[in-house]
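User: I've been going back and forth on whether these two constructs are worth ordering. Before I decide, could you fold them both?

Assistant: Sure. I'll take them in the order you sent them. The first construct and its structure tokens:
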Amino acid sequence: MACYISLVFLLGFPAVYSGSHTLQFYVAVSSTAYPGLLQYSIIAYVDDVRYGRYNSDTRRCESLIQSPMVFSEHLDGQTNMAQQTEITQKVLMNLIIDLLNKTHDINYVIQTKAACVLHEDGTVDVYEEVALDGKELVVFDKERVEFVPATQKAVLLAQWLNKQAFAMEDKIFMENECTQHLTLYLPYIKSYLDEKVPRVKLSSSESESGTELHCRVYGFYPRDVEVKWIKNGRDEIHSEEAAQILPNPDGTYQIRVSVGVTPEEGATYSCHIDHSSLENPLIVPFETEIKNSHITYILIAVGVIVLFLAFGLGFFIQRKMKGLKGSRQSVSSEEQD
């Protein structure tokens, strides 16, 4: 397993200027070759940006981001390694099928998802899991330095992988060579993964339960960001829902933080954004007047009632006036007779 991890990590590394950065990859190995189906493929990502690939059709390592010409010779060397790794992985595929007591007359796909997270303080976190047809088999345990079975059927597989020392090889590579290659590739991908200042859009919505303020922060890079609502310049308003940082197609990120508020006369609200691209936290005041929805609804209801009463009273008075006029005309006619 360490061999294909080496391949993917050598394709490139994220720029670590501030915050945490993640390098992740997906490896798929099919037990049977079918026309139009890739029997072996690797797709690599840096902070959710797809940046490298290799597959059994092209049999070449390709950089998916703009890279200097000096990468050509390096990619040639990585292609040779990838081709050898592909052969090794196909052999391992057959061994895994045997260890799981599967028959070889059915097509299976072994999928590996792995990630290396490099933090600003230089510490490294790693993650790796292996699945068969989408069902998890084993998970890498960094502290115990071994693969742990996710199901009872995968016990023998985990034992075999640990006996071959794959877990230790992976740990050593991720915690050592990972940062070394990062230093090597950093100058070349700096412009592609440079910091991007967040943009902000504030809005509000009204409901019977009250007013909700929304702070949408988007277009920022790297991923780490802190977004919060502040009342009267000092009191933080906590959101009832945990906001998620989501990736954009261009490699940037977005997040929306919403809070419910009870409008008070003279109260001010502002969204505070803290990001590594900013020298100081960005403070965006919510300038639109927040109306008390309950009072608004009551005033509307009272207005409607008053309107109906006025209309009804007018109609009643008009009918009475017509009736009175008719009575006077009737009395006048009788007197003339």
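The second construct, handled the same way:
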Amino acid sequence: MKPLTECNNQHDKVMTENDTCNKGVREMISLIGTDLDGTLFNDHSQISLANQQALRQASAQGIQLAICSGRTLPTVAALFEQTLKVPGYRVCLNGAVIYDPQNQLLQKTALPPQQLLVAFQLAKRWRVRLCICGLEKIWVYQPDLLSGKAAAIKAPRLTLHSEAQLKTLIEQGNKFYKFTFNLIHFNFTGIRQAVKAAGQLPLHFVRSGRYFYEATAPGVHKSAALALIAAHANLDMANFMCFGDYENDYEMIRDVGYGVAMGNALPRIKQVAWRQTIDHDQDGVAKILRKTAIAN
């Protein structure tokens, strides 16, 4: 459901200084959720002072917060504990791992082992980088071990050398919650072929960068995680305001009552958003929060 439907036409998508559609929104918002890269983060992968202040003020007003990211638990936890210094839900690895504000686990959904093995085979065949994400560590397979552009996830990294090694890790009881493919060495044919094959697997498979793709178990995405949080906290997703920019944010922006697309968001994200804000490098999250969700 999209509240305030009279404000949802295309003309009103872009926030303006004279926006008259915000009356009543402030009283409705019960949770603010945000993606990180391309959304809450600026171009230096930092949360700007303006964004920090806006989120702290929202928390002080009693609004729940959630970081909804493809990143691992240590990164998301550190942002709450060391940067924002407020409590919040940690929706990690695109919804595969969910913790509450008291750092209690709500849900973990691991990838099926067989799909991980297929992913490794595809990475080896098509010579693309594969990252397999555990709760706190990331295992990286890179066919020729040459340096390419690193995936935008900060966590301890270990080298994955072979399919046999991956099988051993699985047999030892290790759980993995997300894998990624990304381009290395301008191997455009390889990434296209790997993505085409992975897209046929029973997975939730999305693009979250120009040549960066992410996979979680079927039905695992940010919106499903927020639905779990809504049930846990006895809240209604119609009263959630969430921010995003890329395909791994699509369901979240579509399904909450107040989905906000960044100015730098993909057209597909903007099409399903309740409102559009400005660029992530111009404090777009803080800008719309101050106009719609928090008291000035």
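Notes on the second construct follow. The two ends are 27 Å apart (CA to CA). DSSP finds eleven helices and 14 strands in the chain.
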